[in-house]
Request: fold
Amino acid sequence: MTNPDIASLIQHAADAVRAKSDLQPRVLVVLGSGLGALADEVTDPVRVPYGDIPDFAVSTVPGHAGAFLLGGLCGVPVIVMVGRVHFYEGYPMWQITLPVRVARALGATAMIVSNAAGGINRSFAVGDVMMMSDHINLIGMAGHNPLIGPNDDSLGARFPSMTDAYDTQLRAIARQVAGAASIELKEGVYAGLAGPSFESPAELRFLRAIGADAVGMSTVNEVLVARHGGMRVLGFSGITNVARLQSDEGEPPSHQEVLEAGPKIAPKMMAIVRGVLNEWR
Ligand code: HPA
Reply:
């Protein structure tokens, strides 16, 4: 499917979810690395596996389960994406971002999104949490953007702005929550790449030169679609490894390293998200 009728795909998928739960979510929470355990805190959860939702893609990556959870989180009705699919898995952009479209159709007006990322900013260390202040959409600049194709004006504008894509007010709340809990919260620019190969040292030097603080293989497409649909966005990167800008600077990055950093990141990221949701009630 190259140019699917996205509105009818959204409708079919949303109908399938509604048939399992009539909860109207206010917030979409995308559980990437660092937030996975939040799934256990969802009250009265209704689980809808992606495989049961028409046209949803199912992840091929170990550690990325695939289901929507509908329920309460800190008293806020939420829809949680437990697992996501990535561009490098070979899925088209419209399919990677369909869950965000469906969450919007079900009523979510905001998205909290998380990911694992490599640290590029020299002041970042493994285990840090970086709140996203902006992004560099390198996949998009290379011609892959989920908004390419005929625009459905009922979903959003043809040329959506990405100024203030990461909501200023929500970021202020997150800063406050982190400060009150004595959690160090970094902020910076996330560069979104296709992957699945990690960056070469020369590519990392390029990313630093263009102003990236962290680099990863997800999130940006979800943010584009969320903003297209008018959702407010708050994003967090868990720094799972730091960039080696010379090939002789220690071990090369690995998926194992990315998975191992989780326990350092998860409690901090979860505390911030809980705090933000508490403010939301
Ligand atoms: N590069 C790209 N994506 C990543 C990295 C990285 O170093 N770490 C976690 N996701």
Summary: The beta strands are 27-31, 43-49, 67-73, 76-82, 110-119, 129-137, 185-192, 214-216, 232-242. The first strand starts at residue 27 and ends at 31.
